[in-house]
Amino acid sequence: MKLSVRVQTDDFDVAALQRELLRGEAAEGAVATFTGYVRNSNNDRPVKALELEHYPGMTERSISSIVEEAAVRWPLQAVGVVHRVGALKPADQIVWVGVSASHREAAFAACEFVMDYLKTRAPFWKKETGPTGSAWVDARQCDAERAGRWQAPKQQ
Amino acid sequence: MLTVLFFGRFREELDCARLEIELDASCADLDSLQRKLVSEHGARWQQVLAQDNVIRARNHEVATGNPALADGDEVAFFPPVTGG
User: Fold this and answer.
1) What is the 3-state secondary structure (H, E, C) of A37-62?
2) Which of A37, A65, B34, B66 is most buried, judged by most C-beta within 10 A?
3) Average pLDDT of chain B, as a whole number
């Protein structure tokens, strides 16, 4: 499996990233991608700007370990993850996950798995600025629950 | 020497991103290090580092239990993550 993890301040080109998932041997029958954007509101509060902090070194390591877990669960050809840090504003692209595989089932599932785990395990912290000032974003229980679904015992 | 890092809300509330601490018996494991930080820095640190949701990492991996610390280790304290 080919793996690429990037943490960067610059914006990214999803078409170029998707092309990187294809290895030129036509073994991939499916590519699934997810792009996250900065919303203009959170919990009904307007968001004017967002600052993203991360833990250099641990971030790359934790994302790689999440992707390695995905590769144990599904047969994957390539996985790419890009996460932006620094100053962002509403409508900016913030995160991209792309997965190529022989078949769509693995590509869809692994893409969602990587995104769910990234939200609950990768060391990033958001600080939002609205009309009344700035505040650190609290972790959401629903994100923990989404990630927890992947650990639920398989249904018979 | 231990390197101790703080991120996100903790970094701001403690007004501290990084500390270098000499490894000795008073910080031979993660729990002792945390107690030492609180006792040396006072009430503000007690308040921040005593929260239920403190995540501790040792050498870029989330620590479970109370691992022993070795010279050169990098330890980090941070709140639950909010990326993506």
Assistant:
1) ECCCEECCEECCEEEEEECCCHHHHH
2) B34
3) 96
Cβ count near B16 (within 10 Å):
17
| 3-class state of residue A130 by DSSP | strand
CATH of the domain at A142: 3.90.1170.40
Q: Reply yes or no on whether the pLDDT at A19 is more than 60.
A: yes
Residues of B with Cβ-Cβ distance to A119 under 8 angstroms: 81-84
Strands (E), chain B: 2-6, 18-21, 55-58, 61-62, 74-78
Segment 24-83 of chain B within 8 Å of chain A by CB? 53, 57, 60-62, 76, 78-83
Q: Which two tokens stand for residue B8?
A: 């996100």
Residue-wise pLDDT for A72-117, tens only, equals 999 999 999 999 999 999 999 999 999 999 999 999 999 999 999 9
Please indicate whether, in this complex, the C-beta atoms of B7 and A61 are within 8 angstroms of each other: no
Could you give all domains of chain B from N- to C-terminal order, each with its CATH number? Answer: 2-78 (3.10.20.30)
Q: What is the DSSP letter of A112?
A: H
How do strand A2-8 and strand A78-84 relate by DSSP bridges?
parallel
Q: ipTM of the assembly?
A: 0.94
CB A33 within 8 A of CB A14: yes
User: Quick check: is A152 in a domain?
Assistant: no
pLDDT band for position A154 (cuts 50, 70, 90)? low
